Amino acid sequence: MDIGTLNAPDGLDLADPSPSGGDERGGLRVLQRVVLPDARDIASLSLYIDPDTGGGGGASAQAGRTAPVGWIHPDDILGRSSVRVRAGERLSFGSYFNAFPASYWRRWTTVEAVILQVRTEGSGFVLLYCSNDVGSPRRLEIRQVHGSQHSVFEIPLTAFGDGGWCWFDLVAGGNGMELASARWCAASDVPAGKATLGITTFNRAEYCLDTIGAIEADPEVRKAVHELIVVDQGDRKVQDQAGYPDLARAMGGQLRVINQGNLGGSGGFARVMSETAQSGTSIYAILLDDDIVLEPEGILRAIAFADLCRIPTIVGGHMFDMYNKSVLNAFAEMVDPYRFLWGPGKGLGPHDFAVSGLRSSSILHRRWDADYNGWWMCLIPVRIIHEAGLPLPIFIKWDDAEYSLRARKLGFPTVSLPGAAVWHVSWADKDDAVDWQAYFHERNRLIAALLHSPYAKGGRVLRESLDTDFRHLFSMQYYPETIRLMALRDVLQGPAGLHAALKNTLPRLQALRADYSDAVLDHEPGALPSGHTGKGLSKPLGRRSGDAPRWGAWTLKAALKHTAQPVSRRMVAAVSHQDSKWWTLSRLDEAVVTNAEGTGAARYQRDPRQVRKMLAETAALKARLLAEWESLRAAYREALPGITSMEAWERTFRAD
Predict the structure, then answer these.
(1) Region entry Disordered: which residue ranges (predicted)?
(2) Catalytic residue of the set 76, 218, 290, 400
(3) Sequence-distant (≥ 6) Cβ neighbours of residue 180 within 8 angstroms
(4) Can you name the CATH fold of 195-332+369-429?
(5) What's the pLDDT tens digit per position in 69-125?
(6) Does residue 307 carry a catalytic annotation?
(7) Tell me, which fold does domain 2-187 have in CATH?
């Protein structure tokens, strides 16, 4: 519905409702402000103003396209909420951060209509659009504006059941125009909830200070936050950094640092959730990772969304790549129940908005309902904490996914909210499948499957675990396989020792590194491999056209080589990280392999005796786990309420 263009300062709904609450005069709640990045941050501009002038193609059309050049002048960004549109030019706010994800609000909240308020200076046009679940755009309104004007539009959300966004474009007249501010609002008398923000950190003090600074600098976020808690588990303390005293003074009583031993992410976030639930002053805990760059507007959007949800809902933020700022890791994270494996839904990540903007990415216009959201940014209502408990004491990996699966069983959904996001250190710069984290990948996935898999014997999880064992062993990666076997033994011991293991497991894993050359990095430049072995060595196909499946033949050949064939030391190669795939390494007797970060290299050496021993052990442990699956599942499920209770965690905090 078109409400009209209002020129008078006393016109309808011209009051500035606070994003952290309602407007007492108009009964409006700001759902999201239109925001812009710092003018110097040109790498993220495509997330705020959509550069893509194409008409479609979706995510599949990204290959081979290049981002437009010269689509915006950085010096035209006038502030956090304002931008200049030069004469005759057009800017679209149909972007990730500034379009309105109407279908999410339609499905999960009580909002029935959204109100767009746009303040402009100068002459030009405001064009209002919406899309459907396949991304087809429809122009709802075109409004000519002159001078200082405040344009108001109302859009019913009834047609956004399966998907769709709303957005606006500005087209400047002959003298140009400016966007002074814009916001998406809704009629609401629901009081704004307060949140406690919690950062868990381990020796990333500089990132923490930047996040604290971003929160301190945004007065609207400060209004919405009761307290910011930093759980510092490292030995390079946040409080010892040069910038901390000034930030602490500026934050006043809103900043609190808790120093505790390294209990992992689950231990740090459990502390935040426990402190929030027991304080009685916040109705939400918002978990933030330590190695992020924060978009503060996302905090306000998550709180507004949670306030207006029909039922208590976990509200997650998306994760962008810190070093390639326009790239979204995943639009929605799923857990495949049969494989019991996490990851983005098909076609939902990674996605580069500088290559394919929101308007031309049709797959992103459908509403995608997530199974869980990573704890780089995640809002959890206190009511859910009281009913579902605290995280599993599993250090890292699967704590966030398991928590959402547990909450869903109690009737509490998880929504990954578009437009709420952080930038996080890229997964591409990590290779946690071959370092000490391989233990937690294996153990915690199996524990989560025991707790939540709907399939007998966990579906395919044990078969995939065995496939991973083969790949490590045939790739001469004996350290990760050793600790994966530790993980299997620990799962078989049952849930009783999980809290005690928080403190002693990581030291055990790190102590083993020196015994395995594939886990010992040489950081000298001369140790880095030269050449690119692996190119042209194809992955064995599961089936060739007209042939029987070939995995069996390849596995048998690799098994014979790595268990029985003497080590010739003739097949030695330098292998870059990019080329260090299992189908490459399995052909070699020795390799010098670069790590994911590019900071060093490790020596892989084939050892048939080691392979025979580990194959026998993994076969025995997998057989035992298969046989005992039902009894273990019952034991873990029975123990779950106790080991995730506040009382159990409080004992762990006190012992630490």
Answers:
(1) 1-27, 523-545
(2) 400
(3) 81, 82, 119, 120, 121, 148
(4) Spore Coat Polysaccharide Biosynthesis Protein SpsA; Chain A (3.90.550)
(5) 346 788 899 999 999 999 999 999 999 999 999 999 999 999 999 999 999 999 999
(6) no
(7) Spore Coat Polysaccharide Biosynthesis Protein SpsA; Chain A (3.90.550)
